[in-house]
Amino acid sequence: MKDQVNDRTDQYGGSLENRCRFALEIVKAISDEIGPDRVGIRLSPFADYMESGDSNPKALGLYMAEALNKYGILYCHMVEPRMKTVGEKCDCPHSLVPVRNAFMGTFILDAPLNKYNRNTFYISDPVVGYTDYPFLETAA
């Protein structure tokens, strides 16, 4: 789906719509076969590992969220954009809020994890270490 790796010149390449076509055809086929209430998708429009980014990841994520609505699938699991550290400051230039607002079904994100304390790894104390981290607060 990303324009930095999709260099096709047929109906599956070029425009944003064409680059997303194959994924949406798969979602439709699976939904038709087993029902949309048993289908989910995981997307990572902001990931750019191994030079596989997109020139406009926000538009890619937004387009897919809106296009997926017509299939009524169970969920969309979106990988959050990575923060970038510049000096002492962390910055995240992208937001999933517009994508979340566009997708009408269940929207799943990876929760922020607690910072680990390596000094408590593999110790015999049953109270300190893996079991004493704060619990994830969930929205009601």
Automatic annotation (TrEMBL):
Keywords in alphabetical order: Flavoprotein, FMN, NADP
> What does the record give as cofactor?
FMN
Indicate whether Cytoplasm appears among the record's keywords.
no
UniProt feature coiled coil, ranges: none
Does the entry feature the keyword Amino-acid biosynthesis, yes or no? no
Known PANTHER family for this protein?
A: NADH OXIDOREDUCTASE-RELATED, NADPH DEHYDROGENASE 2-RELATED
The protein here is known as: NADH:flavin oxidoreductase/NADH oxidase N-terminal domain-containing protein
